[in-house]
Design brief:
Chains: A alpha/beta, B alpha/beta, C alpha/beta
Number of strands of chain C: 19
Structural class of chain C: alpha/beta
Strand order of the largest sheet of chain A: 3-2-4-5-6
CATH architecture of chain A: 3-Layer(aba) Sandwich
Oligomer: heterotrimer
Number of helices of chain A: 4
Number of domains of chain A: 1
Helix content of chain A: 25-40%
Number of strands of chain A: 8
CATH class of chain A: Alpha Beta
Number of helices of chain C: 15
Strand content of chain C: 15-25%
CATH superfamily of the largest domain in chain C: Metal-dependent hydrolases
Order of helices and strands of chain A: EHEHEEHEEEHE
Chain lengths: 184, 311, 436
């Protein structure tokens, strides 16, 4: 959400809340995968990228292991290209190591309809054949349109479709909070 | 941002921002091209028609690859050109393609202006894959992309284009594109093939290759159509090659490790020696790879995203 | 009897350019006078009813004579025919048109010439006078039966559309034509220099990648034909002169007394090569539109008399033929209906040419050179006349063109200054832009 197109209803997470949620996700990733072996962190543009970087940093702190970090641009995999008015700018996908036989942790800010995650799955598969793919999100706001679920969730947030979840991260937005907005 | 145009007909009409956007997108496309799995769902359900009135396996294949990697369906129509009433068939063919609801038509045709002609008729987008002696924008864009990849920012760089510039759409498109990026372009050829009227492109024109080589960052040789000798435009391949052929010896005159380019297919031993063509300086194969990336970028920018309509 | 009152008469044959009253009776000009009382007019009518037209604010001039039109009949009636072409002529202010010989078949026999003349009479609009070819089949080899063709009504000979490449054939034609007293009209174009060029060679052709035709393609043949005319004492008319070099060659030849006249087309006076766009085949014409310098030399040459006349080179083509890529569209501009207005708007109103000179070059000069009736409003002559409204504006649209062709660069544009009444032999054939 580049511009906040609505009136703020409530603050879901503040900077501390985000920090705690991300740290918890980092712990869960290591726990669930029984260590850091074969893990690759892949942030989905845009806000998935700083989240992935933070997770990488925390895991380095707890485990002393620097996990490989990739960036995924899913523009070319979107299923709504022919319906949206503004063509998104294509950015580079940069996953520095082979995904072959690895566990790829896809990281995004919000899980909503599941369409972005679906595109990210396809984009990842086109890079090679990972052993498994897991999904980590800061906020899961419900309303899935595809059979997709997250493996790691910072905050489950029941919402209505009229509402907007705005994740703001210092690296992108120069603010650090998660807001719930009412569409105007 | 989508390109604010329906068609890509030439670089004369394109502004610097558009060129940069295409080059930037092509960079992403090249990354995809380098992957083991070269297939995207992006243009699923879109149809691209290759309409080629001149035989050109290289360009046609490059466009086909580009469209296919992006997930579009491609159809190639090779039309044997009869010498009379060609235009009627182009008009009628255009109407037929329109009726088949193609999203994009790639046209190669021997008449200057034919791509604009087609673009005026069709609702679908048109990419000019070479129209007569007018323009060949995708070739120039891939040349520029290749130069930038090697040399970085091109502003202030010196590019020498040598050969039959009069009859060359590659030279024209490169001259427009490079000029817009602040490159010093020099067109070189014998007076019969680089005559004064080429001054209309607003770039330097000369007949003496050796005098403009010092300082050249890029030397691009154009393909010499061997039939031109019969029309009296140059006396012999021997003399042409002696004056304008790129040899290792001659390239030393640039005083630097210049980049050598050629749009292909090459007449080895005429405009370029074997040794130069196969040297590390020559980026000719890279040009081919980059050609697919540039064409992917253009196809995506024209028909990816919202419906192919420009207000 | 017709009484045109207070009309500004432009008649260079009588050195007139002033308000006059004009009387027309029994198809002929009866009188022109700057002061004419009602009594005088009543007396001259001799009891006949008088139709009075107030010509205030309008020009009256002799019906224009166009010495270069392609009417396409016989053979290419999908482009134009003699009826549609002669209707277009009177709509544009022309009461006499010369029909070029490059029809299918070409007009190389008396019988064919008679056909063209008769079709013109049957149409009943402008006078249509045939031009015969110089050589049989326009092959540039054997001469036609010039004397016999003159009997059939031919007023000049021309292989227009093609140049007679063989200089000896041209020399012989200029000799033999002396039997008839008629001029040879030369289409000057060296076929090797012109090649398969598409527009004038210059920076515009270089920019667009359209094959160029050098100015020399015309001028070398102009020079040749002037030399041959001087040598033989023949009578030469140069069609559609388009280069500064040609103008200079003609100027020098005339100074030496060579029996030569020359024409220029309106489009060469108005447009230049820089105006051409790749998708706009309306400006694809032969000789090609020249440089700005050439255009200036043509205007100068026309004003100073080096170039004697204006001629349209009306070259109708079908829309399908012109709706092709530039290289494949045919050369030619259909201009009978727009030429006079375009010249008025672009050249007279802008002060580049005098109105009197334009009328002279399009009426009196061609009449003199080709020995034609008309081109004058002298009392006793046939009343071929044009009433021209300088304020009349019209959008050039397919729906109001009577020519079959639409290949005009003015399509969709508004022109100002049009013939609003046209008489042929005193008979009104066009009124308020509608044909009668």
């Amino acid at each position: 959400m580049d511009t906040l197109e609505g009136t703020v209803k409530s603050k879901i997470l503040d900077a501390d809340g985000i920090r705690r949620a991300v740290i918890r996700i980092a712990h869960e990733i290591v726990e669930k995968n029984k260590g850091t072996d074969k893990l690759i962190l892949v942030g989905i543009r845009r806000r998935g990228v700083p989240l992935a970087e933070r997770i990488q940093k925390y895991i380095l702190e707890f485990e002393g292991v620097q996990l490989p970090l990739g960036i995924l641009d899913i523009t070319l995999y979107r299923d709504d290209l022919s319906t949206i008015d503004v063509q998104p700018v294509v950015h580079e996908t940069d996953v520095p190591v082979s995904v072959e036989g690895k566990t790829v942790i896809l990281i995004d800010d919000v899980l909503y309809t599941g369409r972005t995650a679906r595109a990210a799955l396809d984009a990842t598969m086109d890079l090679g054949r990972p052993e498994r793919i897991q999904l980590a999100v800061l906020v899961d706001r419900g309303h899935r349109e595809l059979p997709i679920r997250a493996d790691y969730v910072g905050k489950n947030l029941p919402t209505s479709r009229r509402e907007i979840v705005a994740v703001q991260l210092q690296e992108v937005d120069e603010a650090e909070e998660v807001l719930l907005l009412e569409r105007v | 941002m989508k390109l604010q145009r329906k068609d890509v007909l030439g670089l004369e009409e394109m502004d610097v921002e558009e060129i940069r956007q295409i080059l930037q997108t092509a960079k992403v496309m090249k990354g995809i091209l380098m992957r083991p799995i070269k297939k995207l769902p992006t243009l699923k359900g879109k149809s691209v028609v290759n309409l080629f009135y001149e035989a050109s396996t290289r360009t046609r294949t490059s466009f086909e690859m580009a469209a296919k990697v992006l997930g579009a369906d491609t159809t190639s129509i090779a039309v044997a050109q009869s010498s009379v009433s060609k235009g009627e068939s182009l008009y009628d063919t255009a109407k037929t393609i329109q009726a088949m609801r193609a999203d994009l038509v790639i046209l190669r045709h021997s008449s200057s202006g034919s791509a604009s002609f087609l673009a005026d008729i069709l609702d679908a987008g048109v990419i000019n894959a070479g129209d007569g002696q007018h323009e060949h924008p995708t070739q120039a864009l891939l040349d520029i992309f290749t130069m930038e990849e090697k040399l970085g920012d091109l502003e202030g760089k010196n590019v020498v284009i040598v050969g039959d510039v009069l009859h060359s759409r590659v030279a024209r498109s490169n001259a427009w594109g490079l000029r817009k990026l602040g490159v010093n372009v020099t067109l070189v050829g014998p007076p019969t093939l680089a005559p004064a009227e080429m001054g209309g492109l607003g770039v330097k024109l000369t007949h003496d290759l050796d005098s403009v080589l010092p300082g050249a960052d890029v030397v691009m040789a154009l393909r010499l159509q061997l039939e031109r000798q019969k029309s009296g435009l140059f006396p012999s391949l021997r003399e042409y090659s002696h004056l304008y052929g790129l040899t290792t010896e001659r390239l030393k005159k640039t005083g630097k490790q210049s980049v050598v380019m050629h749009p292909g297919p090459m007449n080895r031993g005429v405009e370029i020696s074997d040794e130069v063509a196969d040297s590390a300086q020559a980026l000719i194969e890279r040009q081919v790879t980059n050609g697919v990336a540039i064409r992917m970028a253009l196809i995506y920018l024209l028909i990816g995203g919202s419906a192919n309509v420009v207000a | 009897m017709l009484w045109l009152k207070d009309v500004w008469v432009v008649d260079p044959s009588q050195k007139l350019s002033s308000p006059q009253s004009v009387l027309v009776k029994e198809g002929k000009i009866l009188a022109i006078s700057s002061s004419m009382s009602d009594e005088e007019v009543q007396f001259k009518a001799q009891g006949e009813a008088i139709e009075t037209i107030n010509g205030q604010g309008k020009f009256l001039f002799p019906g224009l004579i166009d010495v270069h039109t392609h009417l396409r009949e016989p053979g290419q009636e999908d482009k134009e025919d003699i009826l549609s072409g002669s209707r277009a002529a009177v709509r544009g202010g022309f009461t006499t048109i010369l029909a070029m010989a490059n029809t299918q078949p070409v007009i190389d026999k008396r019988a064919l010439a008679e056909f063209v003349r008769l079709q013109g009479e049957r149409a009943g609009y402008a006078h249509v006078l045939p031009i015969g070819t110089v050589t049989k089949g326009m092959q540039g080899e054997e001469l036609v039966e010039m004397a016999d063709m003159k009997e059939g009504g031919v007023v000049a000979f021309s292989d227009d559309g093609k140049n007679i490449q063989n200089s000896e054939v041209m020399r012989l034609a200029l000799e033999y034509v002396k039997l008839t007293g008629l001029p040879i009209i030369s289409h000057c174009e060296d076929k090797y220099l012109a090649g398969d060029g598409l527009m004038r060679r210059g920076t515009a052709s270089g920019r667009m990648g359209l094959k160029g035709i050098p100015a020399s393609a015309e001028s070398v043949i102009v020079a040749r034909d002037l030399i041959l005319t001087e040598e033989t004492g023949g009578k030469l008319h140069l069609a559609h002169i388009s280069t500064a070099e040609s103008v200079e060659l003609i100027r020098r030849a005339k100074a030496r007394g060579v029996n030569v006249t020359a024409e220029v087309n309106p489009h060469h006076l108005i447009f230049c090569d820089e105006d051409i766009h790749l998708t706009d085949t309306a400006l694809k014409v032969n000789p090609p539109l020249a440089s700005q310098e050439d255009r200036a030399a043509l205007i100068e040459g026309l004003q100073d008399g080096t170039i004697d006349m204006i001629a349209t080179d009306h070259a109708p083509h079908t829309q399908a033929e012109k709706a092709r890529p530039f290289a494949e569209a045919p050369f030619g501009i259909a201009s009978l209906e727009t030429a006079l207005s375009a010249v008025y708007q672009y050249l007279v109103l802008t002060g580049k040419l005098s109105w009197e000179r334009v009328i002279e070059a399009w009426s009196h000069s061609p009449a003199k050179r080709f020995g034609l009736k008309g081109g004058t409003l002298k009392p006793g002559t046939s009343a071929d006349m044009v009433l021209f409204d300088p304020g009349y504006k019209e959008v050039i649209e397919p729906s109001n063109l009577v020519s079959k062709a639409r290949n005009t660069p003015f399509l969709g544009k508004t022109l100002q200054g049009f013939p609003v009444m046209v008489w042929v032999e005193g008979r009104l054939v066009q009124r308020n832009r509608m044909l009668l």
